[in-house]
Specification:
The protein is of the alpha/beta class. It is 32% helix and 20% strand. The protein is built from 31 helices and 36 strands. A hairpin with a 5-residue loop joins strand 30 and strand 31. Helix 4 packs parallel to helix 22, helix 10 crosses helix 14 and helix 13 packs across helix 14. The chain starts with a strand and ends with a helix.
Length: 923
C-alpha cells in the first residue's frame, strides 16, 4: 500500500486528500488531516473519488488512445501519438495558411492544473498567435473577477476560510454552500455550534439546506439581488450604521453611490424583492453592526446578465461599513471548480493575461511577450466563451481545441453551440473520459490524464496553492495535459519560429510553473517567495513575495487597495430586471444548480452509480401549489418550453421553491435526458432551455433565469428497458440505449448500482405518443440481450403490451438481471424498484409477469446518506422511535442508531430537515 498526498478534483474548496494505491491501481482515498482547507474532512463526492479510477471505469469510460476520423460519420480509428500529432500539425498549419491564426479558438477548463493553463495560454497567444482562448470559468466566475477589479482594483478574494470561525455574522448570497461546498459548510456548522451567537443570513429564492440553517432567510424574487443590496445600503446610510471614517480614509466615489441608492428605500426594495420590509431592516442592522461580517457568494450572483453589478453592490456593503481587511470580515467569492482561481492567475481567459494583466494594455502585453520570449502577442482580448461559439457558428472561427470540458452539455443555447461544432472544419477534444456530448462532434480525441495521475498545482477559493501529485501513471497512452500541449507545440515551432529557441523546453511541470511564477513578480498575486519544494511541505496562500516567510491570509488590512489611488472604488449602479422577463405566455422562472453528490456534466461523478442514489433520475422541481395550479401530478411528463427550445421531463413537488419558480439540476445533459419534440427536433438536455444573455462587463451568461411555460404531453406508451452488466461493458450499453432514446419523444437514461459486485446497471425509460415501432423494440431487446433462451416472456397482442425478464442467481437469491416492458400507462412499472434495488424475486413467482403483483412493495425511499446507504424511510422510522427525546438529542440518537451523517457529513443538512419535518407530521 502506497499513500500519496494530493488535492481533490471537484469544487473550489481545495481539500487535501491522501490517495491509497497498490501498484498501478488507486484503491482508496481519505481526507488529509494536515491540509488547512479541510483538516481531513471530505464530502460525498471527494470520498468516492477513488471509485472513478477503478479498473472497470478505465476499461469502459476512459479514453486510452489517440483517435482520429476525417468525417464525423466515420468510425473512430485508434492511432499512436506520433501519427496523430503529425496529422494534427499538418491540419492546423493548413488551416492557418488558409484563414490566419485567429481561425483557431481554445476552450479550456477550471479543472486543468495551473501548469496546463500556462501551457495552453502560451501556445495560443505566444506561439500560434490567436487571442481566442477562454475557459469554462467564464460560466461561473467571470462576474466575480470583474466585480473585484472594479471595486478593489484586483481579482483577489481578500478573505480566508479561517474567517468563518472569526465572523459574528455570515451573509451567504446565491450559494447553497451545504451542497456546492460541503466541507466549507462543515466549518460553518462547527462555528455556529462553538459560538451560538453567530448570526447567519442566507439570500436565496429557494429554501435550500443552507437557508434552513440560517437565522434569517431572505427568499427574494429571482433576479432582484441588486435591489436588495441597495435597499440594505440605503438603510445603513439613513440609520447611521455606516463607517464614515473608513469611507473617507480608504474609498472614493461614495457620494455618487449614496445618491444612486437614495430612491431604493426599504419599502421599494421590499416591493421589488418580494420580501417583508422588516427583514431588510433586520439584515441591514446585522450586517452593519455586527463586530465582524463575512459574506460568501457564488453562482446565484455570478450567473446573471447583471452579475458584475450584483458583485459590486455586495462589495459596497462591506466598504460602507468597514467590514473588510479585518479578521472575520470581507466579501468572499467561492469558486466553483478546483482551479478556477489558478486559471485566472495564469491568464487562461480571453479577458486576462498572466499575473492579472490586461490584454487591452500595451504595457501588459509587452511584459508577457518578454517573459515568454516572443516578439509580440495578440493586441486585444479574445472572444469569450459564448462569443467563440457564435463566431464558429458564423464561420469566422474554423477550428476549436477543447480541453477537459463539455460545451455541448454546459453552455447555454445548445442549438447554437451544436451548430457551431458541426460547422467547424476541425474539432479537437482533449479529455480523460469518453462518451461526452462534445465527443460526437470531434474529429480528434486526445487522451488526457486525470485525478490521481497528474503532477502540478491548483489554487482554491482562499488563494491557497496546493500540490497535485500522481499516485499512479496514466492508463493506456493517456498523457498529462501540459505534455500534450508541449509535444504539439514542439512540432509547430519549426514552422512558426524557424531557427529560434524553443518556447516549450519543459520536461517537468515545475519548469512550466516557474515561468508562471515569474509572471507574478511585483504583481498583486506575487508568488516569487514560493517554490515547488516549499509547496511539497505545505500549501501556501498568495501573495507570498520573495523574502516572505509565508503567504498572506488576509488582504487590505492596511486599508490600501490595488487601485491607482490606493482607494477602493464606489461606482453607481442601477437595478435592472432580468434580461428575459416573465410573461403571460411564459410565466415561470427556471433556475439550474447542483445536486449534492454530482459534478458538472457527470463525466467523472457519473462513473460512480452510487452517486445517483439520492437523485436517480431527472426531475423538474415545482412548488406543490404550482404543481396543483398546473393540474399536474407527481412524476407526470411535461413539455418545458423556453424561447430557445423544448425539453420533456417528469415533474416533482419541491417545497423548497417559491411560486412561479422551477428548478432543474444542471447535470442532466443529452447523455441522460433526451428525446424529440412534436416537429421531430432533437432535445439536448437542460441547457437547451438556458438563455445566452450576458453580463455586459463580464460576458457571463444568465444561466440562473429563463422564462418557461409547462405543457402536459400525451405520451401514453411507456417503455422501460434495463440491465445489469459487467462494468467493462456498461458504457457500450449506455451508448446503445442513448442511440435508441434519441428516437423517443421522451427518454431518460440513468445508471444504478449493480446486482452483484463488478456490475453496473443502466436503465432506459422512453415515452411515445403511438405504439413503439417493432423494429425499435427489437433493437432494444438486442441491446439488453433479451433474445436468448431462458428469457421469461409475456405478450398481449391485442393491447400491444410486452414484458420480458431474465434472472440471475438461483433459488431465493435470484434477481432481475435484465427486463423490458412495453405498455400503455404504468402496467408493470412496479418491477422497476425490484431491478434498481436488486431485490430477490423468489417470493413473486409467476407474478413477475402480472400487471401488478399482490406482493409488490413500494420503491425504497431515496438514499440520504450516500456513504452508508441509509434511506429516508429508515431515518423517519428511527425519528418516530425517539420522538420523546429533547430536540437536541433526537438527531444524535438517529446517528447513534444508523450512523448516517457520521462519515463525510454531507447529509447532515438533510438529516436536520427530516428531523424537523417528521416530528411536525407526528405532532
Amino acid at each position: 500500500m502506497r499513500e500519496t498526498r494530493s488535492t481533490c478534483a471537484y469544487c473550489g474548496v481545495g481539500c487535501g486528500v491522501i490517495i491509497e494505491s497498490e501498484g498501478p491501481r488507486i484503491t482508496g482515498v481519505r481526507g488529509d488531516p494536515d491540509h488547512p482547507a479541510n483538516f481531513g474532512r471530505l464530502c460525498s463526492k471527494g470520498a468516492s473519488l477513488h471509485l472513478t479510477a477503478q479498473p472497470e471505469v478505465l476499461a469502459s469510460r476512459r479514453l486510452l488512445q489517440p483517435q482520429w476520423r476525417e468525417d464525423r460519420a466515420q468510425a473512430w480509428q485508434a492511432s499512436g501519438w506520433d501519427e496523430v500529432q503529425d496529422r494534427l500539425v499538418a491540419r492546423l498549419l493548413a488551416l492557418r495558411a488558409a484563414h490566419g491564426p485567429e481561425a483557431l479558438g481554445f476552450y479550456v477548463s477550471g479543472q486543468l492544473l495551473t501548469e496546463d493553463y500556462h501551457a495552453f495560454n502560451k501556445l495560443a497567444r505566444g506561439l500560434w498567435g490567436t487571442p481566442h482562448i477562454d475557459s469554462n470559468s467564464r460560466l461561473c466566475m467571470s462576474s466575480a473577477v470583474v466585480g473585484y477589479k472594479k471595486a478593489l482594483g484586483a481579482d483577489a478574494p481578500p478573505c480566508s476560510y479561517e474567517d468563518v470561525e472569526r465572523a459574528d455574522c455570515l451573509f451567504i448570497a446565491g450559494s447553497n454552500t451545504a451542497w456546492a461546498h460541503p466541507v466549507l459548510f462543515r466549518r460553518i456548522e462547527a462555528a455556529k455550534a462553538a459560538r451560538p451567537g453567530l448570526r447567519i443570513i442566507v439570500v436565496d429564492p429557494r429554501r435550500t439546506e443552507t437557508a434552513e440553517f440560517a437565522d434569517l432567510h431572505l427568499a427574494l424574487r429571482p433576479g432582484s439581488d441588486v435591489a436588495l443590496f441597495q435597499g440594505l445600503l440605503h438603510v445603513m446610510i439613513w440609520q447611521g450604521w455606516i463607517r464614515a471614517d473608513y469611507i473617507a480614509a480608504h474609498t472614493e466615489g461614495f457620494e455618487a453611490v449614496r445618491e444612486a441608492v437614495r430612491a431604493m428605500t426599504p419599502a421599494r426594495a421590499a416591493q421589488l424583492c418580494g420580501l417583508p420590509e422588516a427583514q431588510i431592516i433586520e439584515a441591514a442592522q446585522l450586517f452593519a453592526q455586527s463586530p465582524a461580517t463575512l459574506s460568501l457568494y457564488c453562482m446565484g450572483l455570478n450567473q446573471s446578465s447583471a452579475g458584475t453589478d450584483k458583485n459590486q453592490a455586495l462589495i459596497q456593503l462591506h466598504l460602507a461599513t468597514g467590514q473588510i481587511g479585518r479578521p472575520g470580515t470581507g466579501p468572499f467569492s467561492l469558486t466553483g471548480q478546483p482551479n478556477a482561481m489558478g486559471g485566472r492567475e495564469a491568464g487562461g481567459m480571453a479577458t486576462l493575461l498572466p499575473g492579472h494583466r490586461d490584454p487591452a494594455s500595451a504595457v501588459d502585453r509587452a511584459e508577457v511577450a518578454r517573459l515568454w520570449g516572443v516578439e509580440q502577442i495578440p493586441d486585444r482580448p479574445g472572444k469569450t466563451a459564448v462569443e467563440m461559439f457564435e463566431a464558429a457558428e458564423a464561420g469566422e472561427i474554423k477550428a476549436l481545441w477543447i480541453a477537459c470540458t463539455d460545451p455541448a452539455q454546459s453552455l447555454p443555447r445548445q442549438s447554437l453551440v451544436r451548430a457551431a461544432l458541426q460547422r467547424c472544419e476541425l474539432v479537437v477534444l482533449q479529455d480523460a473520459f469518453t462518451g461526452s456530448a462534445t465527443a460526437e462532434f470531434a474529429h480528434v480525441l486526445l487522451p488526457a490524464a486525470t485525478w490521481g495521475e497528474k503532477e502540478g498545482t491548483v489554487t482554491n477559493s482562499e488563494r491557497r496553492i496546493s500540490r497535485v501529485r500522481a499516485a499512479v501513471p496514466p492508463p493506456g497512452d493517456a498523457r498529462t495535459d501540459w505534455q500534450i500541449v508541449r509535444d504539439l507545440a514542439r512540432r509547430l515551432e519549426p514552422a512558426l519560429r524557424p531557427g529560434q529557441p524553443r518556447l516549450f523546453d519543459w520536461n517537468h511541470p515545475a519548469e512550466a510553473w516557474l515561468e508562471h511564477r515569474a509572471a507574478t513578480r511585483g504583481r498583486d498575486l506575487d508568488i516569487t517567495g514560493l517554490s515547488y519544494a516549499g509547496l511539497e511541505v505545505a500549501p501556501q496562500q498568495w501573495p507570498c513575495p520573495a523574502g516572505a516567510a509565508q503567504g498572506r491570509a488576509r488582504l487590505y488590512e492596511d486599508g490600501r487597495f490595488a487601485t491607482d489611488s490606493g482607494r477602493a472604488r464606489f461606482l453607481p449602479i442601477a437595478w435592472r430586471a432580468p434580461a428575459e422577463p416573465l410573461t403571460v405566455e411564459r410565466p415561470l422562472q427556471l433556475s439550474t444548480g447542483r445536486l449534492r453528490d454530482q459534478w458538472h456534466s457527470l463525466s467523472r461523478s457519473g462513473t460512480v452509480p452510487a452517486a445517483f442514489a439520492s437523485a436517480p433520475a431527472p426531475r423538474l422541481g415545482l412548488h406543490p401549489e404550482e404543481l396543483a395550479r398546473h393540474g399536474l401530478r407527481q412524476d407526470e411528463l411535461v413539455a418545458v418550453e423556453s424561447a430557445r427550445g423544448t425539453l420533456h421531463v417528469r415533474v416533482a413537488a419541491d417545497p423548497q421553491l417559491g411560486l412561479r419558480q422551477a428548478w432543474l439540476p444542471m447535470h442532466w445533459g443529452s447523455e441522460y435526458l433526451l428525446g424529440r419534440d412534436e416537429e421531430g427536433a432533437a432535445m439536448h438536455g437542460v441547457n437547451s432551455l438556458s438563455q445566452d444573455a450576458r453580463c455586459p462587463d463580464s460576458a457571463q451568461p444568465e444561466l440562473k433565469f429563463a422564462a418557461i411555460r409547462l405543457r402536459r404531453v400525451e405520451l401514453p406508451w411507456r417503455v422501460m428497458g434495463a440491465a445489469h452488466v459487467d462494468a467493462a461493458h456498461a458504457e457500450r450499453l449506455h451508448q446503445q440505449l442513448l442511440a435508441l432514446g434519441r428516437d423517443a419523444a421522451y427518454a431518460s437514461c440513468v445508471p444504478a448500482e449493480g446486482a452483484t459486485p463488478g456490475q453496473v446497471g443502466w436503465q432506459l425509460e422512453a415515452a411515445f405518443a403511438q405504439t413503439p415501432d417493432p423494429a425499435w423494440v427489437t433493437q432494444l431487446l438486442a441491446a439488453l440481450d433479451l433474445q436468448r433462451p431462458g428469457t421469461m416472456r409475456y405478450a398481449d397482442g391485442r393491447r400491444g403490451h410486452l414484458r420480458l425478464l431474465r434472472l440471475q442467481g438461483e433459488g431465493g437469491d435470484a434477481r432481475l438481471q435484465a427486463w423490458l416492458r412495453v405498455a400503455q400507462g404504468e402496467d408493470g412499472a412496479w418491477l422497476d424498484a425490484w431491478w434498481r434495488e436488486a431485490r430477490p424475486v423468489a417470493p413473486l413467482g409467476r407474478q413477475l409477469l402480472a400487471p401488478q403483483a399482490r406482493l409488490a412493495e413500494p420503491p425504497a425511499s431515496p438514499v440520504v446518506c450516500q456513504c452508508l446507504g441509509v434511506r429516508e424511510a429508515q431515518i423517519q422510522g428511527q425519528l418516530q422511535r425517539c420522538q420523546d427525546l429533547a430536540p437536541a438529542d433526537r438527531l444524535q440518537a438517529v446517528q447513534a442508531a444508523l450512523r448516517c451523517g457520521t462519515q463525510c457529513g454531507s447529509c447532515l443538512p438533510q438529516l436536520r430537515r427530516l428531523s424537523q419535518t417528521t416530528l411536525e407530521t407526528l405532532s
